[in-house]
Amino acid sequence: MPKLTDTQTIILSAGAQRPENIALPLPKGLAGAAAKMAVTKMIERGWLQEVDANLRRGEPLWRETGDGHGTTLVVTDAGLLAIGIEPLAMKAGVASRGGVKAQPEVKHPTLRTGTKQALLIAMLQRPDGATIAEIIAATGWQAHSARGAMSGALGKKLGLAVVSAKEDARGRVYRIGQPA
After folding, report:
1. Is 164 inside any structural domain?
2. Contacts of 160 (CB under 8 A, 6+ apart)
3. Could you give the CA distance from residue 91 to residue 121 in angstroms, rounded to a whole number?
4. If pLDDT is split at 50, 70 and 90, which confidence band does 111 have?
5. What is the pTM (predicted TM-score) of this model?
6. Is there a cis peptide before residue 25, judged by omega within 30 degrees of 0?
7. pLDDT tens digit string along 52-87?
8. Alpha-carbon gap, residue 162 to 135, rounded angstroms
9. pLDDT given at position 143
């Protein structure tokens, strides 16, 4: 998997969660020359693609091309793979952009097995969940690293809802639950 900067990860992850994988708006604070440089690098690497914006549907503009037209940015399949998400497989004969609406087959993100992140997800998917002490023992992480992984990698990057509840016998128990 390619090495991504935090900014690139945020742009790709946010775009992956939007309809038609539109990468705009960019993160707050990223504007001007810095935004242009970040987007240009991502286009060169094939992670983003500049496409005609559909102004009637209110798609956000990346840049204006004149005559009332403009372009927007879309996360490509390579961009999804760069953040560890398997692109949706499109049903045969259906266009993804243009006149015909796409009908994707549902595919869940593909995660690498044998990683600490995969171990954490497996622990949180158990019916009894996992406590911080159990996560620390299994992964070797410190408590703040375990909480950060649940909030950042699982919550923000993968869109998994990690919920917690205090139980009398075990203390605070974390599980992967339904998004709020």
Report:
1. yes
2. 121, 154, 176
3. 29
4. low
5. 0.48
6. yes
7. 887 777 778 888 877 667 888 999 988 888 888 877
8. 14
9. 92
Q: Return d(Cα 47, Cα 78) in angstroms, integer.
A: 5
Final residue before a domain boundary, out of 105, 133, 166 = 105
Range of the domain at 141: 116-177
Max alpha carbon distance in the chain (Å)? 67
Contact 130, 149 (CB under 8 A): no
The residues, any chain, with a CB within 8 Å of residue 118's CB and separated by 6 or more, are: 111, 112
Domain boundary among 67, 84, 105: 105
Strands 171-177 and 63-66: unpaired
Number of structural domains the chain divides into: 2
d(CA 94, CA 158): 27
Per-residue pLDDT of 4-54, as tens digits, reads 888 888 888 888 888 888 888 888 888 888 889 989 999 998 999 988 887
